Amino acid sequence: MSLSKPFINRPVATSLLMLGLVMVGAVAYVLLPVAPLPQVDFPTIRIDADLPGASAETMASTVATPLERSFSDISGISSMTSSSSLGTTQRHDTV
């Protein structure tokens, strides 16, 4: 006796079995868990520049501003932040 013989002899039962399997598969597909917000690490660029003894205003005008102009030409950067303090400037760019 072959495996396919009962399915050939009973085509209605075979069709109902196939329909039941398709319905169970459709319900299982709908119930699959999907993460609404997957964990993603966005690429970032961080630059630290030091100029000992320079004030925050000097760091902002002579270091941070030219960096901002240079990075604004790069396509795909979604946000830029910079902070200047006594003798140092930090930049964070998100691509």
Describe the protein in words.
This protein is an alpha+beta fold. It has two domains: 1-33; 44-94, 2-Layer Sandwich (Alpha-Beta Plaits), CATH 3.30.70.1430. 44% of the residues lie in helices and 22% in strands. It has three helices and three strands; from the N terminus they run H-H-E-H-E-E. The protein has helices at residues 5-9, 11-30, 56-72, and strands spanning 44-50, 79-85, 88-94. A three-stranded antiparallel sheet has the order 1-3-2, covered by helices on one side. The longest helix is centred in the N-terminal third of the chain and has 20 residues, at 11-30. It is rod-shaped. The N and C termini lie far apart (65 Å). The model has no long low-confidence stretch (mean pLDDT 82).
TL;DR?
By secondary structure, the protein is α+β, with helices and mostly antiparallel strands.
Topology of this structure?
Elements: H1 5-9, H2 11-30, E1 44-50, H3 56-72, E2 79-85, E3 88-94
Antiparallel strand pairs: 1-3, 2-3
* Separation of the first and last Cα atoms: 65 Å
The helix-and-strand class reads: alpha+beta
Write out the strand line-up for the largest beta sheet, numbering strands in chain order: 1-3-2
Order of helices and strands: HHEHEE
* CATH homologous superfamily classification of the largest domain: Multidrug efflux transporter AcrB pore domain
Helix content: 40-55%
Question: Would you count the extended β strands for me?
Answer: 3
**Structural Rg:** 32 Å
- Write down the overall geometry: rod-shaped
Mean pLDDT: 82
- In the CATH hierarchy, what is the architecture of the largest domain at level 2? 2-Layer Sandwich
What is the level 1 CATH name of the largest domain?
Alpha Beta
Query: What is the CATH third-level topology name of the largest domain?
Result: Alpha-Beta Plaits
User: Major sheet, described briefly?
Assistant: 3 strands, antiparallel
Domain tally: 2
Please give the count of helices.
Answer: 3
Poorly predicted runs:
none
* Percentage of residues in strands: 15-25%
